[in-house]
UniProtKB/TrEMBL annotation:
Pfam families named in the record: FtsX, FtsX_ECD
Keyword hit for Transmembrane: yes
Cited function: Part of the ABC transporter FtsEX involved in cellular division.
Family: Belongs to the ABC-4 integral membrane protein family. FtsX subfamily.
Keywords: Cell cycle, Cell division, Cell membrane, Membrane, Transmembrane, Transmembrane helix
Transport found in the keyword field: no
Chief site of localization: membrane
The protein's name: Cell division protein FtsX
Transmembrane segments: 21-41, 179-200, 221-254, 280-299
Location relative to the cell: Cell membrane
Length: 305
């Protein structure tokens, strides 16, 4: 009988404050969708880091004849065969190095033509203007400085470049976008909490006569509060369910179908369905507990039970 009464009161409360309940559902849905999206964005960035950092190389570019005339690092002339052998020998002895690949001037010219063949500059370049290089695969991409310290400024070396630095700029941009989404999410959560508190208070005020009678006949504080708390929890759970739906639809249409980013951006290793599905229980739990706790603390002061 008591359970039936509580459930009936929940239905009455939700219908009585339909507009505010709708606002709570929408704000909770949007805020938790942003919350889940920010978590998935973090997973995506970490997945991309693991994928790309494992593929980046450190490049040691060697001086050519053109560099000897214009670059201070190559003031002693183009790299000699002995210098190249010494650089290769030193690289092979380093524990941080996993593999070393040599690229000749002809190979560098071929790769440049493949990538930038349409550039106006490509027609004026010749193989002897390209730089020989050693492409080093590191066991740990974070150990770039070991290579830079050992070879920067050495005779025959024009520069040491780390591809990881280029990726770091991309990941900084993605992380910045992620933090912006989290800021909007926090704002939406504050709005949702304010709406929940106001909805509960309006509902309690509209039923003050019933709660007064219940208090007089000796009903416990929890029994009086339960319908209001559960109203907020149900509205939040509906919003959380919608947020889960938004994330599933976004993953389906953005990555697998619709825009089909997985097919168009084959160089990006996108997160899988498992990453999305593991976030759904957290979103549902948050959507249930957050409104319930907000309603509980609001009612303690308002109803004074």
């Amino acid at each position: 009988m008591r359970a039936q009464f509580v459930l009936s009161e929940i239905g009455v409360g939700l219908r009585r404050n339909l507009t505010m309940t709708f606002a709570v559902v929408v704000s909770v849905a949007l805020s938790l969708a942003l919350f889940g999206g920010s978590l998935l964005m973090s997973d995506q960035v970490n997945t991309m880091k693991g994928y790309w950092y494992d593929k980046v190389n450190v490049s040691i570019f060697l001086c050519n004849k053109s560099d000897a005339e214009s670059d201070p690092n190559c003031a002693k002339g183009a790299v000699t065969d002995d210098q190249k052998k010494q650089i290769k020998s030193d690289l092979d002895k380093m524990n941080v190095v996993q593999a070393v690949t040599y690229e000749s001037q002809d190979q560098a010219y071929k790769h440049y033509k493949e990538q930038f063949g349409d550039s106006p500059l490509a027609s004026s370049l010749t193989p002897d203007q390209m730089q020989e290089s050693y492409r080093i695969k590191l066991k740990d991409p974070q150990k770039y400085q070991v290579i830079a310290t050992a070879f920067n400024g050495r005779d025959g070396v024009q520069s040491v470049q780390d591809q990881k630095g280029i990726l770091d700029n991309l990941f900084k941009l993605l992380n910045g976008m992620n933090w912006a989404a989290r800021a909007v999410m926090a704002l939406m959560l504050v709005v949702a909490l304010m709406l929940i508190v106001n909805t509960v208070r309006v509902s309690a005020f509209s039923r003050r006569r019933e709660t007064g009678i219940m208090r007089l006949v000796g009903a416990s504080g929890f029994y009086i509060q339960a319908p209001f708390i559960m109203e907020a929890a149900v509205a939040g759970l509906i919003g959380g369910t919608l947020a889960c739906g938004f994330l599933l639809i976004a993953r389906y249409f953005l990555i697998d179908h619709g825009l089909a980013l997985a097919d168009q951006l084959t160089l990006i290793n996108f997160i899988g369905w498992d990453a999305v599905l593991t976030k759904l229980p957290l979103i549902l739990a948050t959507s249930l507990l957050m409104p319930a706790l907000a309603a509980f603390f609001a009612l303690r002061k308002y109803l004074k039970v």
